[in-house]
Amino acid sequence: MSKPLSEHQTRTNILDWARHLKCEKEVLQIFAKYDNLLRNCTNPIERQAIGIAGNQEIMFLLSSRPGSIMAGGKIIGKE
């Protein structure tokens, strides 16, 4: 079983895909939106819910871009 990626590496990978799909600006805006929400939240349950919502928004954006292929919740390539 492989070790989960760090937050930094995960964001780097997401931004690489966003550049490839020409939606980097939108992804950066989503990151900023959820970073701001997390900055002001101290409740661990709410923090987890905010993180899930941010992940869903990113995945929706990337999977809705022309040319992206989803497999098991992960973007795997272009058509």
Number of domains: 1
Shape: globular
- How are strands sequenced across the largest beta sheet? 1-2
Radius of gyration: 13 Å
Percentage of residues assigned to helices:
55-70%
Q: What is the overall number of helices?
A: 3
Helix-strand topology string = HHHEE
Span of the ends, CA to CA: 29 Å
| Averaged pLDDT | 86
Strand content: 5-15%
Number of strands: 2
Work out the oligomeric state of the chains in this entry. Answer: single chain
Secondary structure class reads mainly alpha
What are the low-pLDDT stretches, counting only 5+ consecutive residues below 50? none
Largest sheet: 2 strands, antiparallel
Please describe what this structure looks like:
This protein is mainly α and 79 residues long. It has one domain (23-78). The protein is globular, with a radius of gyration of 13 Å. 65% of the residues lie in helices and 11% in strands. Helix 1 packs antiparallel against helix 2 and helix 2 (24-39) packs antiparallel against helix 3 (44-64). It has helices spanning 7-20, 24-39, 44-64, and strands at 68-71, 74-78. The protein has a two-stranded antiparallel sheet with strand order 1-2.
